[in-house]
Amino acid sequence: MHITLPHIFLLVSALITTLITTPLAKRIAHYFDAVDYPGARRINTKPIPRLGGIGVLAGLMVACALQIYGTLTWGWPSALIPHPSMALNYPLLAVSFLMIFGVGALDDIFQLSPRVKLAGQIASALVAVASGLLIHAMVDPFGTGEIELHWLSYPVTIVYLVSFSNIINLIDGLDGLATGISAIAGCSMFSFAILAGRTDAAAVSIALVGACLGFLRYNFNPASIFLGDSGALLLGFSLGAISLLNVSRVAALTSMIMPLIVAGVPIIDTFFAIVRRKRAHMNIGQADTGHIHHRLIQRGFDQKQAVLLIYGWTVLLSIGAAAINQVDIGMRIAIFIGLLVLSATFAIKLRLFEPVLLHHYDPDNDMRSFQDGSEDEGKDGATPDSSAPDNNKTHQE
Fold it and tell me: Which residues span the membrane (predicted)?
């Protein structure tokens, strides 16, 4: 990973800005009553503000402003250079970032309906697509030609960005979990960008890493502020956009798979959540306690142990994705299968997805089991987070 002086400045500026502005975000959250209060289905014993996205957004904005100033004044290489095969409107792309943050912030404050929130996410993705962030074709993995997506490129890109936003949102269930996973994924995508010579993706990803590290100061257990939807949606959308910036107009299959491997833990968690809720005849948007972090808590891990274990899993997947980027097709397949087997073994060993395998899944019984496990853990000083079905996303899922 080749880190230059401008990259260090971007990381540090985003980190310091987030450190400084997050306490302000707490005050703003309290002013708008965007607060996660203790309740019957909550473990947290005191009110916690949930507009953490303000600090993350501030870090990204300052880092982007510094990059532009450095290019104009100090002779830094410009980050506003798209791949030669793509035409990007960077100001319009920045608007899409502001929009997804706005959707999350409104949800944190006013608790939007699922349909309104989804509409806002789609609108944000539409603006990103309008900026030129679009995959027009895929390299045919079974031939030498290209598979043109034509009009399908628009819905495919929109679904991709909305999905990335929500997989981070869904994994956001323990102190520091989504923030740390996003930081690790950002490091991986930075390395991909450097190797591919993608200056725009490198600048945004290293800024994202800095913002996440700054926010972890307040968000790691015991958290004094939660990401909320404003932060979780912004992080997921940013990672999705960075992964698309890393590829050309015609994307190779490997280029599209690597970011999915890096985000493997939340993707696996989301997939099994959908299956689990469908088997229980639940709305897929309804919260339950079958997520990976809940299973780890039930297995006897405390919050910090569970979060660090998932961090390690994500690092392993990131290293695997980096290796795939450097080897031939045969080794790529072998590494991918190896990562798949290791992840499956880890999941089965801890019985993380046991409810999915039951013929009839009872979410109420699962909730009682989680609460009993949480109470036992509480005796040892652990404070697992809530799973209440509302918009306090950090402790919802």
Answer: 6-25, 51-76, 88-106, 118-139, 151-170, 177-195, 201-220, 232-251, 257-275, 306-324, 330-348
